[in-house]
Amino acid sequence: MGRRPQDVEQIAFELIMNDDANAKSELGKKILGLAYKKGIYPSSIHELYMAMGRGECGGFTVPAINLRSMTYDLARAIFRVAKKNNSGAFIFEIAKSEMGYTAQIPVEFASVVLAAAIKEDYKGPVFIQADHTQVNLKKYNENAEKELETLQALIKDAVEAGFYNIDIDSSTMVDLSKKDIKKQQKLNYEICAKLTQFIRKIQPRGIEVSVGGEIGEVGHQNSTPEDFRAFMEGFKEKLRKGKTGISKISVQTGTSHGGVVLADGTIAQVKLDFDVLKVISEIGRKEYGIAGAVQHGASTLPDEAFHKFAESGACEVHLATGFQNMMFDSLHFPKGLKERMYEWLKVNAASERKEGESEEQFYYKTRKKALGPFKKEIMGMPEDVRDKIAAEIEAKFDFLFKQLNNLNNKELVDKFVTLKRVIVRKPKEGSGVVHDGEGAD
What we know:
The protein is an alpha/beta fold.
């Protein structure tokens, strides 16, 4: 009698619990092979976004959801919501910083998402994105070449893992001390063009990775049409002829990552300028043929704000902290585990405590840092506990899909997005990894 085939959930959990990067990679290849057999393909959303830019589709905003914890359970919940609403346009993402503090390297994140798709019997393209591939201003000023090499290595790892959507965030390089707007954006568009060219060089054959740029650092000064045009003109000048550019632009409209927590632990209300999204999205489509503007830091906004994103023509909205909060604050989340995580923070995040800060503010701000060290314990919670927490968050996913008008677009996505099977071949010594893109089975 032959061995019974391993359930994809077992493989996913083995991958999550394994600390060896090579073992994770091998388990990831196993999951990818199963995904292809089931008609599930890591994909680029580029073609859909360019169709938006041409005015061939629109009227909905794509949710890009950062999964910092319970990734397998919450990805399953998202696929269930997508199937229920006949939605095809939704993105799973993780930022460079999140990969560190949640202990989810690219191959783990992508593989776990694909395992969730298999478990929920989803079919078609799955969009996995590297959010905020961010240039560190201090490190860049100390050694520009080294900082860019670090980012290129991360991008390479991500693309090899099936992240065919990369958000470049060089908005940290915008220099508002300069009077001339183009000079303010100069380092931003130069670095963005350089990293875009790098992505085009390493992307698998037959896949045009979706690349996003950013003109306003979240939590800082609101973006303007002048900022956008200055960035785009400079970016086009710097991008080599014949190379495909960006498909969307991230802007600042008044939000901040994670929201602003008050002394009593509640989230401060923010005034978000939807006109910024509307105007820049229109300019993006009419003048540059891209999908439009992207909103960051939105998950902690009040529920009544979300329907305005689709109305404003925003092509994408990034959602993260709100789901993390729902997990921590769920009545089903084990009290003892939460207490151990908070005790860990008292010691390991002590340097981040500010004078006059309440306990609630300190824990709210830092608790994401405990997700990596306690990842195995969180995923080791009993299945019924994880199911109950996931069900609460699933209801929120469903609400957001409806508010963003992200409904009944599965056929549209299938029409524009080309499915490619990517084979990663072992390269000749010292020549780097070789990707081959084949047509969908």
